[in-house]
Amino acid sequence: MSIFAYLPALPPFLFSTLVVSGLASKALHIGLHIRSLPFLHFVIYSPTLVLPDLLIITCGRVLLQYPAPETRLQWLSTCVGGFFALVTWGASAIQFGFFFQTGAEVAWTASNSFLSDPAAMKILLSGISTVSAAATVLALVAWLLHFQLYNITGRALEGIRDLCVSGYNSCKGNYQGRYTLLSAPSKSWINSVDIRSARRAAFIVAGCLSLLFLELVRPAIPYDHLSSALPLALLDAFNTKSSTLEGCRNPSKIFPLWTDVKPVPLAEGWSRPSWLPENMHDGFSRWDVHPDERGERDNPSWYLCSGGDDGGLYNPKSDPLKISNLGREIYDPLKQAFKEHSVAIDNVILLTLESGRKDMFPMQPDTPLFESLLASHPEENRDSAIDRLLSSTPIAQMLTGEHVRDSHGKLMDFSNATWKDTAQEGMGGLNVRGALTGSTLTFKSILGSHCGVNPLPVDMLEESLLEIYQPCLPQLFEAFNKAKDDAPESSIEPEKVLDRKSLTNQSESLKFPWKSVFMQSITDDYDRQDILNDHMGFKHKVVRSTLKDHESKYQAHGEEINYFGYAETELKPYIRDLFEEAAINKTRIFLSHVTSTTHHPWSTPEDFEMESYMGHEGTVNHDLMNNYINAARFVDNWLGDLMTMLDETGIANSTLVVIVGDHGQAFGEDNKDMTGTYNNPHISNFRVPLVFRHPHMPRVDITANATALSIIPTILDMLVQSKSLDSRDSEIASAVLPEYQGQSLIRPFASHVRENTGAHPDEVKHDDTANGQTKSVWNFGLINAGGSMLSVTAADLPYRLILPIKDDFEYVFTHLGEDPGEVSPSKSWSFSELVEEAGAKFGNEAATWLEDAEKVGKWYVNDQRRIWGYREA
């Protein structure tokens, strides 16, 4: 006897689960986009949106037959139907759980990367409580409706069958039904009046034809995406990844806006430069030419997949988006400091702040976020709330020089901070306001800060499988090492800290080799980060596995605080050792350190005292934001510990500390519709801090819509101008500096330039076409997971376009000058309608810019794939 004899309700329940889960998922799917759909069009085409679901319901009802299966075929059909019902139930629960956590929906095309990554699975499991709750509700509703749905659907299918049979009988005579869809079917009305049957048949045929007509005439975007049924959408999770092909690049397409930049083949004057050290390949492939090894393929055109005159590799001379500011004078205060040789840079530290928001580095008043935070408190408590919030990031205030005042107008008291700034008044380096990230996926963003490249516009870290098209910082420092002859033994006593000012001519420290080290207290297994680190040139690392290894010099003492690993403080002995190694002048260090505590779920060590920053006013649950602020305070304290270790080891005055956020972090206080970074284009995910800290460098505040692409050019320019490199290293640095796409921030940032005129670009109006053609600095940002949407901005105008890379997403336009918090963005599935709306709201300039941004964005997506040598299979 089969299991179905003991569990007669099982097939109806499985069928009901399939129906409830599938339709609930479809309702959520449509609901997330309904506000951007024209109401009349939605009403007209809405019947077509459920057609795939009806097909699946029909197939599920046929497969899940009752009474109990008696043959192997029936057994198989019931098992298959049950399997799809359970899969649909689980996937629908995941969708609802993800929605309740983030306000977004799951993109199944990117989910295969998570399913195959153990570290990524921990992210998914972090929301298991909401997924379990959604699964329970779906199962309960399915149980309450299982007999009704099963019987009603069965009768409907029998009715359709009987109509077909009736028509068949009229032609062929008697017909014997071969199967029953119900255990106790109702009396068939097959023998009722023929006219009645004919009318019903005609009605059904007319309905089917109408649906077919609507299906054929409806716009593909967005209705094809909206009509996708959950079981069919799940197939995207099992699609094979697109292939990445090294050494094969499609030819570049003509830039759509201006044509003054002509393609310059790399083969012209192509020879191995004299400054390039021997045996340098990684990051330097386009300079490292060996014709004898390539035979007849002795120029870069062999990299092309389909021929062409321009080389497939990146060529700055042919890059229409590149605008250089190297011809501009250095800021006067910096020029004077460099001239006096008071700025020594023997070491470079690059700190990447996970989910580092600019409006919280430091916590700043008069921002959309701050106003939202205060709104959670009643009026009578807001003065104390202001003081508590502004005192959460004292180290960030000192590092940036952005000192804020409390509710009484007094400067904040830093006496209890974990670090005391030793820099003199007016000193401290560069602080950039207006910086944007290049991607809201962490290690795509890090490619910009560490390698000076734009990321690949595809989901997840496919860049780890390809050669990075510019030299990364570790590779540059390794080039400096290889360019030197063996350094002579230093006569300095091993434990004595070297004072550069005490040396004559060239500092002894310039002869020491660079050592590049990567440190983070969490795993480096997530999305092939370890592979990317190798490709960037890091030969030394300290990560979670190091902290857990019993053979390591130092092991973690605390517990893991999240699904990635430990708190940053577990790295303290390793970082101190590295600083001490630099202090005895045997090594110049480049340290890359990525913080992680400000990553979801924003947990802190148990001995860290949590504070209450948020009130209870409003409709948003403020617990997550409160946890994030506490995590940001923990990281702020950690930065103080790092700066203290620099002071204690004696290398603070010769160390450049660069601080940048990998991306921001959207909360319900920013945007009630969506939170987090995944498929969320909100501006709060893009504004990041950018600081170049040096105690002997004059404080310069810079307002520029720059990106992390400017980090390497700025570091190289600083090293050269401060005479912190020997002559051979300076030659290398000066040669590669113009090759990067970003600008040096020790010089005035060029947000746009005017061609065919001698006027300074800031002395002419943007729309003054009589003075020549305007070339803007275009900034691009990929939305996590990377291959779905692109943020497009121009450095000289306050507009922003979210450009869909896939058809599953809408166009979004905002005027950041009028709406800095993107509270009221314009959205549309039709680009022409979006342009019309933007023109009506903000004038012709906005409409024209929007049309240009769409063209540039589409060109950029294709060109980045060309530069990276990436082709979809």
UniProtKB/TrEMBL annotation:
InterPro entries: Alkaline_phosphatase_core_sf, GAG_Ulvan_Degrading_Sulfatases, Sulfatase_N. The keyword Nuclease does not apply. The chain crosses the membrane at residues 42-64, 76-100, 120-145, 201-221. Residues 535-718 form the Sulfatase N-terminal domain. Keywords: Membrane, Transmembrane, Transmembrane helix. SUPFAM superfamilies: Alkaline phosphatase-like. It comes from the Eukaryota. This is Sulfatase N-terminal domain-containing protein. It comes from Penicillium steckii.
